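ESCALATION

Customer reports they have been waiting on this structure for their group meeting. Please prioritize. Original submission:
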Amino acid sequence: MTQSYSFQKTEDCLLLVYCPRDGNSWFLEKFRNEKSINLGQIYSVSLEDVYSADFYADAHEAPDGHPWANQTIQDALSQYDDEIWELSFIVGDRCGEYYRLKQKIFGTSNDIYFADDINLRHSHFSAYQKLSIPRRIDALLQQDLYIGGAHPDAISFPEYERLVRSFPTRREIFHYTNARITNVLRDFFDRVPDHFQRLDRYVTRHVTVRPATTPTAVAKLELIKYQSILDKLESMLAYEDAYTEAQWQNEIVEIVRLLFPKYLFAFREAPIFDDDRGTERSVDFLLVDALGNVDLLEIKKPRSQTIMSLSYYRNNHVPLRELAGTVMQLEKYIFLLSRSGRKGETRLQDLYANRLPNDFILQIKNPQGFALLGRHEGLSQEQSDDFEVVRRQYKNLIDIITYDDLIRRLQVSINEFARLAQT
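Update from on-call: job pushed to the front of the queue and completed.
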């Protein structure tokens, strides 16, 4: 007879029906000598877990006291040494529409519940090399787990089965072991097969991982946020003359920070020190990211002007004065800021200390510049092509952004979050 595991349900409990391999004598002997035994390295059962109905047709016929008291079960086992080929153990309790697994039997610290309409098998609990699936899941969770049923936090049973299938198989472990070993051998020998490639091919064919999706509620909130920003920006562009330069910059920088959330702070008219001349200049905004790194931002009103010349200079459209001047201005600021080094960091730290969190340190490390100005609107194809050449020429140091770039970025974000909000 081969070893087997199966599950049965009663109105009150979940039963594991175990059939020992090669008879029951060794199995019963372990029960007499040990408090508990480990079945398949998955289920840790003891005498008190034995289902008494295996020995008594009616539980009321059991001796007085606890219906599955150790001595009672031991006596019963002794009477049936030559006849009992399977035993049932109570491995779960009925809780409403769920069966709750016993923590001590499965070795978990959180409760795991299976809906009562699920037909359980041994393979739902044991992976390759007798790896306990409940224990592995429990080690990664901070809460109880519900599978199937109507509980609000439950995962569906098909999802649980997909999770079970994601545990490594014998073949996958074989490929992984070979890949690790050959990774060392290839440093010393030439003719060693590429087992990393074989592992990758196997995983690609057999392991399916569904990417995490943005929760619908979050997508709806992001959709509202980006739509509000777009409405605000389009309104500002339509009534540009209603804003002073300072008002315009203060409104736009908040839009920039929402679109580039890496920046926690934006300090207006930050000083840039020119130690050679003993003077002080100021940049529109000093941007500070979460690590304390600083970048520079110049904001210009679009003024309905194009940013590239209408005429040709040596068969090319060239940047107009505002674009060229802003880029030159930022280049100079970046040069001065980078050259200031530790001294410049100390100056900025002292200046903004009361506006920064405690122990937050500003750092000048290869600062980048952003120039926000002008419109793409109205540019010919040739002008747009030449503008891209100019933009990429400075890409490693300065990012030139037009207001139409912001609009396109917002529209793409809105379309994507609208799609996610409907999934």
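Sent to customer with the following note: The chain has twelve helices and 15 strands.
Escalation resolved.
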